[in-house]
């Protein structure tokens, strides 16, 4: 996945640095592999969402981390149950895929065909949380909502690597 334009119009800059609660149980090794970086990013996003959920106005009823015990190979890593309707008793699922990198500004990341197809199906309910500078004190968290629409309007592009 190539992000043609990583400006605020594409990514929603959420939080950075000390405002984020870093995963204490998953410190990155000196030379972490992709799975370590991914797990670290998932924990960071989960902790961020849990902080957000403390405010009733967020509408977050529950956060489910699907890969907590093992990688499940689903097209998303977390599910957020959001309150809907006037009563707030009904819920809607928002699907979160976390893409973490040690880089400060890497503009591209891998996305599977399963993730791409699922994003097309659920549209605005598919969020990609992008963790930059994973494992570092200046970690940064951004969000991309509705990948399907961003592709349709050519704000993001797919590319093939062989």
Describe this structure in words.
The relative contact order is 0.22. The chain has a 6-stranded mixed sheet with strand order 2-7-6-5-4-3, sandwiched between helices. A two-stranded antiparallel ribbon has the order 1-8. The protein contains 3 helices and 8 strands, in the order E-E-H-E-E-E-H-E-E-H-E. The protein has one domain. The longest helix is centred in the N-terminal third of the chain and has 20 residues. It is globular. The two termini are 14 Å apart.
Oligomer: single chain
What does the main sheet amount to? 6 strands, mixed
Q: Total number of β-strand segments? A: 8
How much of the sequence lies in strands comes to 25-35%
Unreliable stretches, pLDDT < 50, 5 or more residues?
2-9
Number of helices: 3
H and E order? EEHEEEHEEHE
Q: Roughly how many Å apart are the termini?
A: 14 Å
The tally of domains stands at 1
Q: How does the overall form come out from the CA principal axes?
A: globular
Strand order of the largest sheet: 2-7-6-5-4-3
- Rounded average pLDDT: 86
Radius of gyration: 15 Å
Helix content: 10-25%
Structural class: alpha+beta
């Amino acid at each position: 996945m190539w992000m043609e334009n990583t400006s605020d119009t594409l990514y929603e800059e959420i939080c950075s640095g000390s405002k984020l609660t870093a995963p204490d149980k998953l410190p990155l090794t000196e030379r972490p592999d992709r799975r370590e970086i991914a797990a670290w990013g998932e924990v960071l996003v989960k902790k961020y969402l849990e902080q957000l959920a403390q405010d009733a106005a967020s509408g977050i009823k529950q956060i489910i981390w699907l890969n907590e015990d093992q990688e499940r190979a689903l097209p998303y890593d977390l599910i957020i149950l959001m309150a809907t309707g006037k009563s707030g008793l009904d819920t809607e699922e928002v699907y979160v895929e976390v893409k973490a990198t040690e880089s400060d500004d890497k503009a591209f990341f891998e996305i599977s065909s399963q993730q791409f197809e699922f994003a097309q199906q659920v549209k605005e309910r598919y969020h990609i949380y992008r963790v930059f500078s994973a494992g570092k004190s200046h970690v940064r968290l951004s969000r991309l909502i509705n990948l399907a629409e961003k592709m349709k309007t050519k704000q993001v592009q797919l590319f093939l690597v062989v």
